[in-house]
Structures are given as structure tokens and as C-alpha cells.
Design a protein that fits this description.
Blueprint: H1 3-16, E1 21-27, H2 30-45, E2 49-55, E3 68-72, H3 79-83, E4 88-92, E5 107-110, H4 125-136, H5 143-152, H6 159-170, E6 174-180, H7 187-193, H8 205-215, H9 228-245, H10 251-255, E7 256-262, H11 270-282, H12 286-293, H13 300-321, E8 326-327, E9 332-337, H14 342-353, E10 359-364, E11 369-375, H15 378-381, H16 386-396, E12 400-403, E13 407-413, H17 417-432
Parallel strand pairs: 1-2, 1-3, 3-4, 4-5, 9-10
Antiparallel strand pairs: 6-7, 8-9, 10-11, 11-13, 12-13
């Protein structure tokens, strides 16, 4: 499956070997941070120096006077920006490539889409980075870090992702069990704080008590210590609650069936570690998530604190914003000012609370710029390509957009919001017709 990607990865290795220093730019979410950690670990083992930065995107371009630039989890949709980089470039991404990159010097582009693999579901950026790392040497232990990006980007355990996990299991770095993919902690906290699955128990203690009584599980028990029978009862209870909430039915298979524990990492529960790394990025404390992925225990307690603060903020925001959601003909949308984070909010609304239409979350920042996150689910994605919708609608109002069929985003100006929403609704109606 990886043969074409490996050809490009070997090309990237040849470019790398010309240099003694690499300037790395990677995305700020969990897939980007883990991609950066995989690349950085592989370079350290080769004795190569680097400087890594975490970006929210490439709208502002890339400023570097270095001879080698590595871009991870971004760049394939920004051919104009990449074409302006006057350096050797290694681009490792899983977003759909758009346009032609006119590279100035040596160039390698490791992207599953260019090798016939669906980067939206079958291989994450961390997975593509892992393939590159494996061409640099025996870095099979980094399969654990790749798994964090796979889980964090809500990808399927199929195709390239499954192959990476299989290697990690065979080499003893990943332990695979039957069960639920949930965060660690006391059951009461797990159910109350979980965002994926979102169970709507936050600030609803009586409902939570009733639920725990029905599934016959002590809320003070640790999730990671439940018996298989207890997990089955919990899984059945969660499935019933999600159906009653009107959630997209496919979410049940997203968190049940197989769960993973990481034998070499600072946090063993894969979902928990992925959530911690993601929270560090969302809270603009990228170095904490990166440090944890580099297995530095000094960052761990801060990571847990960031995670709890972040998820509580998201839960409060969801509760507060539910009454502010507006309805288009074919979409639902929410316009916020200085909101916490658009991506997780859009994901919860599109997957768990309003699963029949795509959901668009817009956050107006103090500088007048608007961050847009668009989410749907796999059923809707059978007809609708949100990446194309975001790209076209954003371009119409002078912004930029792109991403994946099921999860995409855009950056626009505040004065363009009404026109942008109208265009997004129109394009969604066309594709969904």
C-alpha cells in the first residue's frame, strides 16, 4: 500500500541528507504536533539539528532563510505559498492537493492522495510523517505517536492507518484490546467530560446518577480498570443515550470495538494522550504537547491541567451557544465573537446534537478576521465535499479555505460573513440535492 509514498519518502531522505539543519513548520492541532514530534525524533536520532514552529495555517506564508524547510500537516492546499519558499522543501501532508506547486529548488511531496490513498480517512499527517521517519531508520516505536494523530483527526482504523497500527502491535509498542475508546479517569468524570463521544452529562448530575444506576457501574471506578462485562454494559448505555440524543449512528463504531494502549509513552491510554496533546495545541501551549510526545515527563502535569481547562471551556461554550444556532436551507451555523475553539464545537454539534445537516462554526476575532470550521459526518460526506465548499465559498469573498470532505475550514474577513454563509448554504444545497 505504501510503495508510492515510500518512493517519495526516499526522495525526501536524499534531500535531507544534503543538509545539517532543518526548519520545521507544522500545524498546531494533535495531528500536526504528533507529525512534528515524529519528524523531530527521527532527526535527533540521525544527529541532525532543527528548529520547529507550530502554526495555525499558512495564510501568512512562511518566513525562513534556511536552506531546508519541512512542512507537516499543511501545505498541499497552498501551492502559491509553497511555491514562494526559496529553499529545498519536504512537504508531508494529508489534505487534498490543489493547484500546482512550482518549487524553486529540490522538492518532495509525501501525501497519501498522490498515492491513491484517502487522506481524509485512511492516513493522517502523522502517519505520512511516520512513513518518512521509517525511511530514515528504524523508528517503529514512533507508530505510537502516529496513532495519536490518527485518533485525534477522527480517522478510520483502515488502510494505511491500520497498517501502521499493525506494525506497532507486532513490535510491542501498541497494545490492542476490545472495548471502548474513552479517556482515562473515574467513570463519572469520563462521562461528564468526554467530547467524543459527547454525552451531554456536563452540569447534569442527576441524569448522570440515573445513567450510572441503569448500567450498574460505580461512578468512582477507574475506566481503565473496568472488566469486559462492565465495559459492555457501559457501551450499551452510551449507545442508547446517543440514539436518544439524535446523534449520527456511525459515531458508535468510532469509539467502540478496539481500544489502544501505548507501552512506551508517558500516558498509556491512547485517547487520553491524544486529548492532552490536542488541548495543548488549542490552548496555544504547543511546546507542552510536543514535549510530552518527545517523552519528557517535565511537561506531563501541565498537560493534564491544560486538558481539563480546555474541555471544561468547550462544555460551557456548547451549553451557552446551543440557543444561538441558526438555520440555513441546507446547513446550520453559529457565529461567535472570541469563542473558545470552533473545531471541537462544530464537531460536537454536527456529530451528536444536530447530525442531519453540515455545521459551520464562525469565530470573529478581535482583529476582524474570522476563523471558520465546517463539519459533517460520514453519511453526509457521501454526497458533500466540505473541503471544496470551504475553498469555493472563501475564495468568493476574498478568503481561503480547504481541508477534508468531512472536516474543513476557512479564514475570511468579518464583513464577508453574511455573503460567505449564503454561498456555503448554496453550495451545500447543490451537492446534497
Amino acid at each position: 500500500m505504501f510503495e508510492l509514498l515510500k518512493v517519495e519518502a526516499r526522495k525526501a531522505v536524499k534531500i535531507l541528507e544534503k543538509h545539517e539543519f532543518a526548519r520545521i513548520f507544522t500545524h498546531y492541532d494533535v495531528d500536526g504536533i504528533t507529525s512534528g514530534a515524529i519528524i523531530a525524533s527521527a532527526l535527533l536520532r540521525k544527529g541532525m539539528a532543527f528548529h520547529i514552529s507550530f502554526l495555525r495555517g499558512l495564510n501568512e506564508g512562511v518566513e525562513s532563510s534556511d536552506e531546508l524547510v519541512i512542512l507537516a500537516d499543511m501545505g498541499s492546499g497552498y501551492p502559491d505559498v509553497v511555491s514562494e519558499i526559496d529553499a529545498d522543501v519536504i512537504l508531508i501532508d494529508h489534505h487534498t492537493p490543489t493547484g500546482r506547486i512550482e518549487h524553486k529548488r529540490d522538492f518532495a511531496h509525501i501525501n497519501p492522495h498522490l498515492a491513491g490513498i484517502d487522506g481524509s480517512f485512511e492516513l493522517s499527517a502523522s502517519g505520512a510523517s511516520y512513513i518518512f521517519a521509517e525511511e530514515l531508520g528504524d523508528n517503529s516505536d514512533l507508530s505510537s505517536i502516529a496513532l495519536l494523530g490518527i485518533i485525534g483527526d477522527k480517522q478510520k482504523i483502515v488502510g494505511g492507518n491500520a497498517e501502521i497500527i499493525r506494525k506497532g502491535v507486532n513490535r510491542g509498542y501498541i497494545e490492542e484490546r476490545e472495548g471502548l475508546r474513552l479517556i482515562s479517569g473515574k467513570i463519572r468524570d469520563v462521562l461528564r467530560l468526554s467530547l467524543d463521544p459527547y454525552l451531554d452529562f456536563y452540569s447534569k448530575e442527576e441524569e448522570l446518577d440515573d445513567f450510572l444506576e441503569k448500567v450498574r457501574i460505580d461512578g468512582e471506578r477507574e475506566f481503565d480498570e473496568l472488566s469486559r462485562d462492565e465495559e459492555r454494559r457501559l457501551a450499551n448505555g452510551i449507545a442508547i443515550r446517543l440514539i436518544e440524543m439524535g446523534s449520527y449512528h456511525g459515531v458508535i463504531e468510532d469509539f467502540s470495538g478496539k481500544k489502544f494502549y501505548l507501552r512506551e509513552e508517558l500516558v498509556k491510554n491512547c485517547v487520553m494522550l491524544s486529548e492532552i496533546v490536542n488541548a495543548s495545541g488549542r490552548k496555544a501551549s504547543h511546546s507542552i504537547g510536543f514535549g510530552i510526545c518527545m517523552r519528557d515527563e517535565a511537561y506531563l502535569s501541565q498537560g493534564y491541567e491544560l486538558w481539563r481547562s480546555f474541555v471544561e471551556e468547550i462544555h460551557r461554550e456548547i451549553s451557552r451557544r446551543r440557543e444561538e444556532i441558526e438555520e440555513g436551507e441546507c446547513i446550520r451555523y453559529l457565529v461567535m465573537e472570541d469563542g473558545v475553539s470552533t473545531g471541537p464545537i462544530a464537531s460536537v454539534f454536527s456529530r451528536y446534537l444536530f447530525a442531519d445537516k453540515p455545521f459551520i462554526a464562525l469565530n470573529i476575532k478581535k482583529d476582524g478576521k474570522v476563523k471558520v470550521s465546517a463539519r459533517s459526518n460520514r453519511k453526509i460526506a457521501e454526497k458533500l465535499d466540505l473541503a471544496e465548499v470551504m475553498r469555493s465559498a472563501a475564495e468568493k469573498v476574498g478568503g481561503r479555505g480547504g481541508g477534508h470532505v468531512v472536516a474543513a475550514g476557512a479564514n475570511i474577513d468579518a464583513e464577508s460573513i453574511d455573503e460567505f454563509i449564503k454561498e456555503v448554504d448554496r453550495l451545500c444545497c447543490i451537492q446534497l440535492a
